[in-house]
């Protein structure tokens, strides 16, 4: 269980909520409202006030890199620091499972990052996160650059992850997607966060 208690930073007003194992919370709100600030603070990537804990262990009590492996933030545009794809995957065999699950060709291994489409890079970044098996995965618009088929593939895969106990915080600008993936939603507006209940259940 992830617990966020009076978390605040810069424009982000104090927010408290919890996220159970295997639960998905949608995060919605206008551009510039503070959604990424919220997720980055939870990943302990930026200074913040308040307490964040995972199964009762507060993030400030463990080294930040260790926390970020368990409570992982995947930005809308992931960073790439090497030219070739496989240079970002220390264990390519393990990565293959996720690469194939995301319906990317395994030949992508030897591709140059700069030659990939936005959608390919987006799915590859997701594979890079999934191979590390985070307990909580925070996704910043993970399907924004994808066609409908790829969106369905990503949603189905993440649903399986939920069923296996991974927790998700999922930023989306698509209200229909929020309805499909989550039962609860955090609405962010001018740094204020309001929790609401969504009507329908997770993806079928
Ligand atoms: N490190 C920072 N310190 C202070 N303010 C910041 C910082 N990073 C971003 N901001 C500002 O905080 C506001 C919220 O930014 P944020 O990136 O969280 O928006 P967002 O809701 O994720 O928007 P979008 O949907 O466009 O991605 C913006 O006005 C942004 O300029």
Automatic annotation (TrEMBL):
Signal peptide: none
Residue ranges occupied by any ABC transporter domain in the UniProt entry: 2-203
Database matches in InterPro entries: AAA+_ATPase, ABC_transporter-like_ATP-bd, P-loop_NTPase
Keyword terms, alphabetized: ATP-binding, Cell membrane, Membrane, Nucleotide-binding
Record's keyword annotation contains Coiled coil: no
Superkingdom classification of source: Bacteria
Family matches, as CDD domains: ABC_ATPase
Record's protein name: ABC transporter related protein
UniProt cross-references to Pfam families, sorted A to Z: ABC_tran (PF00005)
GO molecular function terms noted in the UniProt entry: ATP binding; ATP hydrolysis activity
Keyword ATP-binding attached: yes
């Amino acid at each position: 269980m992830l617990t966020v208690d009076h978390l605040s930073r810069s424009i982000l007003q104090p927010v408290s909520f919890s996220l159970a194992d295997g639960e998905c919370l949608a995060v919605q709100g206008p551009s510039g409202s503070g959604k990424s600030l919220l997720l980055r603070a939870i990943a302990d990537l930026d200074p913040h006030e308040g307490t964040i804990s995972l199964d009762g262990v507060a993030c400030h009590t463990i080294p930040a890199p260790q926390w970020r492996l368990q409570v992982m933030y995947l930005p809308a545009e992931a960073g790439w620091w090497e030219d070739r794809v496989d240079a970002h995957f220390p264990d390519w065999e393990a990565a293959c499972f996720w690469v194939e699950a995301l319906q990317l060709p395994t030949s992508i291994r030897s591709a140059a990052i700069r030659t990939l489409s936005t959608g390919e890079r987006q799915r590859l970044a997701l594979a890079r996160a999934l191979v590390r098996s985070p307990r909580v995965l925070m996704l910043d618009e993970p399907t924004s650059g994808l066609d409908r088929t790829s969106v369905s593939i990503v949603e189905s895969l993440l649903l399986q992850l939920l069923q296996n106990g991974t927790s998700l915080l999922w930023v989306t600008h698509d209200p229909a997607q929020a309805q499909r993936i989550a039962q609860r939603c955090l609405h962010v507006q001018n740094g204020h966060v309001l929790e609401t209940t969504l009507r329908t259940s997770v993806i079928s």
